[in-house]
Each structure stands twice: as structure tokens, then as C-alpha cells.
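Haloacid dehalogenase
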Amino acid sequence: MPLIEEALIQCDAVLFDLDGTLVDTTVVVERTWRAWAARYGVDAEAILRVCHGRRTIETIEEFAPAGVDPAAETAVVEGRMMLDTDGIVAVPGAKALVAALPPDRWAIVTSATRPMAEARLELVGLPMPGILITAEDVPAGKPDPSGYVRAARELGFDPQDTIVLEDAPAGFKAGHAAGAHVIVLATHLAPEALAAENWVKDLTALSLEATGNGALSVRVRG
């Protein structure tokens, strides 16, 4: 589907991805994976086509040469990502949208580890949600929907009554599989890669409007 020009969506809660959705970490992710690919002689472009939105260990399991310990290598890669903060910023509109949401109506579902997620939120000045689902909290990473299903249920809502905000194919597939209304942010994907999705440029396209029935009313302007 094309860029959303205007829509008004009612929901019970908003579920955010983190990297690329609330916090733009694209430069760090790409820098880290290119260095890792060079170390092992792996095709960096192949990694970058699929790594966004996935747990680090799943990318390593797919691309690491034989004999590499995925768990140990994951610790190394994530350690480097934790130390590399140059270029990390909040996605435009993130602070205003989160500030407008009631604390019990939003959550974050991320493929990052908990320490990394907390560090990145603190780095860009975003608040910690009451519910933060991280890589350690799910049996399988995105595109498995379990993270979004769990977040919705911990908030007390049906996943089908939530909006999922995502930026990567693994993430928006997870949102669809959970039954949520998915809106994709074009923070690093080209419009042609989003042809099958409802998408906006960034979070400045979203705002809250008052509603008298207890639901959230999200205005989307592309």
C-alpha cells in the first residue's frame, strides 16, 4: 500500500519496536555488522538485508562460519554495539508521541537485549516503558509474533486491538502475525520495499486525539 495520506485509527494500545522506530541506530547496526562480516569473510550486504529487527544470535546463526560459537559471538557483537553510540538519535516525533500516550497504553517490543535497550532509551532521553519485551523474554525472535502478543496481553488488551509501529520486515511480519494494525516507518527502507505496507516517513506523522469511549484515537498524516 502507499504512504498513508490521512487516517484516524482507534486502538487500545500502541506497541513500538525500538531500533529504527523510536531510536535510529541504523549507522551503528550497519557499522557493526560490516566489521563482523569483514572479520569472517562474509557478505556484508547479505547480512544487512536481513539483520534489521532480528535478534543478534539469529543473524549470527545464519551467517557465521562453521566452528563459531553463536552465543559467545553474540556477546562480542552486542558488546561492540553497546560501546558504539556515535550517530544514535531519537526518531523524529518519538518523544512527543510517547509523552502523549498514557503510561499503561504503550509498550516496547525489541530484538535487542535488555541492557542495550535500556542504554539506548537513556542515551536519547526517552522514558522507560512499564512493559519492555526484549530478546531474552521470548522463545523466538521476530518475525515470530510472541513478543507483540505478550506485550498486548501484559497491558491487558487483545493484540488485534493494538497498533504496532515497526521499521523492518521481520518486525512488521511479527505485527501482522499477532493480528495488530501495523504501520511501518520508512527510516531505512526505500518506498519500493514498502509497497505491501501502510507506511509513513517517521513518527511526526502520528498524533493522539481525544476520544470519549476509553480507546486511543491515533491521527495519521503522511
